[in-house]
Amino acid sequence: MSVMQDRLSPDQDEFYSTLIAAHEGLSSEESQAMNARLILLMANRIGDLGVLSDIIEAARGYN
Amino acid sequence: MAYDYQPYPYVAPPGLKETEPRHAVAIVGAGPIGLAMAIDLALRGIKSVVLDDNNVVSVGSRAICWSKRTLEIFDRLGVGDQMMEKGVTWKIGRQFHGDEHVFTFDLLPEEGHLYPAFINLQQYYVEEYLVDRAREFPDLIDIRFLNKVLNHDDRGDHVVLTVETPDGEYALEAEWYIACDGAGSATRERMGLSFEGQTFEEQFLIADIKMEQSPFGDEKVPERWFWFDPPFHSGKSALLHMQPDNVYRIDLQLDVDADGKEEAREENVIPRIKAIVGDKPFELDWVSVYKFRCIKLDRFVHNRVLFVGDSAHVVSPFGARGGNGGIQDVDNLGWKLAAVLQGNADDRLIETYNEERSHGSAENILNSSRATNFMTPKTPIEALFRSEALKLAKDQPFAQKMLNSGRLSLPCSLEGMALQTPGAAQIAPGRALVDAPLSGDAGDTWLLHEVQGDFTLVGFGDVMLPDVPGIRRIGINTRAEYPCFTAKHNHAMRRYGSPKAYLFRPDAHVCAVFDMPTKEEIIHARARALGAELEEAE
Can you give the pLDDT at residue B536? Predict the structure, then answer.
């Protein structure tokens, strides 16, 4: 499993609370849909297929 | 109880017999904040009368974690050594998820500071040291135990207090009234000031236990252990922290609808603690059940009534921002009030206490709310994000930093606020002093000891400091007509950069920086720090 460089610090708390706030008031289906949109938007922002494959593989690795 | 409570004597106040001359300052509440306030003012030659409805130090388990900045302020007040001697210095924090150890943080990544990031010390010891210290100023500090303030009336340029004692009531006048009467402030209630904010539904069981054997394995290394979803307390959080005298603090999150009274009963508490510490023998020292709130007053300054500490703001305990925030309030207000009373500034300077500490308190509330939110997920999606963050935290550094069981209190920055002269430097104007070891003709010392208390101009490296009356000057790694020191291990030079001059306020926040300061620039920066450029009050 690849260990990735920390690029969020020192803003991790700000990000986390923004993310949680974005889910406020959504049903669990709506939250799931929101997460799917987020992933697609973030993928487009990253835009590098090699990096995206690594991330997908890393995320699978924690099951 | 582990602590031997000695009541302080009540002495009948003169006001019972005849009208007392108007006092400069009345401090209501002799907790750590009120006492620190009195000592801070006394060190500046300002007299105060301290009124408290009680006559013993804090009962039970309250503030325990004192941060580096607080210890530095206590050093200036004269109790830093005592606190270090008695306190437990810890630096390792371990976080667990279930029965797995996920992440360890080390609070002391850097050498060359007099005080550690944190010590743990029960509030009753801190109050005892502060009472003893306050009594070293018999001409300046008049502490009156069993003097309960029943009422106060702001008359514009002074406040009239009605005080109840065992011998009856009396009236007392003071130019300034400082409310250090805690989270349940009677002063605030009398004034009908709104005190609303986020209240967390979850309840927490707080217990102090006395236990001879260490739960951490190696007794020489005190640690802080925090569990998300521990095996012994499913679905909740737990905290274990060490205090002096082999006393340990345990925080356990309870169900939202738990019956607090029932949970606090000894027969219900003991099995919960045994589940954490196992078969090691222990005694219960203190138990209570709390709900946490994150609230601040809109304004800390109401004409002649000033709110300091918990009376002005309360936070959840995660991140140790309650008592530590209050001590920074004291540090911010003391020199300003003294400057006003001594005629070196006008009332507008007091308004900047409101501006600067409101900002500090909002920062503390933001951080402690985030920690409490992370610890107590409210919805399934929050719980999901947290549990996945915990999984990733096993090896992903970004996720390790995301785990939030309290972001430890750092000194508040006043960057960009009115009293600071804008400028660029490694330690920007507004930030608090960063300590560093020095050596001089009289031996080893610390930057903190040379800077705190008065306006001080410090030159790092090859920069000449002009002589301005009333401003202390010191040079580092240079030779000059004023006291000069060598930066040990070059820490001071690395932290501040050189050549550079820094002007520190009496509370050791940087208020101006210079490459080559002129006398006029320094006079101007000090005047600005004393409020000379603030707009006229409305």
Answer: 66
Q: Is residue B391 less than 8 Å (CB to CB) from chain A?
A: yes
Residues contacting residue B484 through CB under 8 Å, at least 6 positions apart: B440, B474, B475, B476, B478
- B392 near A CB under 8 A: yes
Distance from CA of B513 to the nearest CA of A (A): 26
Mean pLDDT of B428-454: 96
CA atoms of B173 and B26, how far apart (whole Å) = 8
H/E element, B66: strand B65-67
The SS3 call for residue B456 is strand
Is pLDDT at B74 greater than 50 in this prediction?
Answer: yes
Q: Does any domain span residue B49? A: yes
Number of independent structural domains in chain A: 1
Residue of chain A nearest B390, judged by CA positions: A62
| d(CA B238, nearest CA chain A) in Å | 21
* Residue B100 at interface with chain A, using a CB cutoff of 8 Å: no
Structural domain includes residue B81: yes
Domain of residue B71: give its range.
14-88+121-196+294-367
Chain A: residues touching B (Cβ < 8 Å): 1, 3-9, 12-13, 16-17, 19-20, 23, 26, 28, 31, 62
| Residue A52 within a domain | yes
Could you report the predicted ipTM of this complex, rounded to two decimals? 0.97
Give the number of domains in chain B: 2
How would residue B537 be classed by pLDDT, with cut points 50, 70 and 90?
low
